[in-house]
Predict the 3D structure of the following.
Amino acid sequence: MSLTPGMGLMQVGYNESEAARRRLYFHLVDASGDPVTTKNGQQPQISVNGDSFTSSGVGTLLAIGSGYYYAEVTQATTQTNFAVIFGRYDDGDTVECMSLNTLIIGDELQKRTQGDVGKMQTDRSTAQTKVYKGDGTTVWFTRERSAPDEDTVQIAPV
């Protein structure tokens, strides 16, 4: 699996209208680790809140260069408060790739209120991110490996 650290969690507004803010990024490589540059227009999949992967709710891959791509999540997919969305791509020609970033949808109230609602705070020492909810509570998310010898990443509430 291809995993390039550094992008991590990205906050997206509830019902986000700006497509550039709804992008999931991918770095596609072949079995020898060389960038794959021929996947423009191919279909990635997303998982919302840990549900099964589906191609519904996400556009096709758009090439950036050197094996990097992005795909835009649809606006309708951002209409769930505090949803966690991440993507994957695998077609047999590439090593399975999880998206380099994970989108966390803000609270619907974020557009109507001031203060901390929908804001995020990241604790780099624990790789956890706190999301402030509209009801005054918070939710912590963390990116963690499922096993020390695997290159898989899972998002899990703490």
About this structure: The chain is about 0% helix and 35% strand. The CA atoms of residues 124 and 153 lie 16 Å apart. The chain has a mean pLDDT of 77.
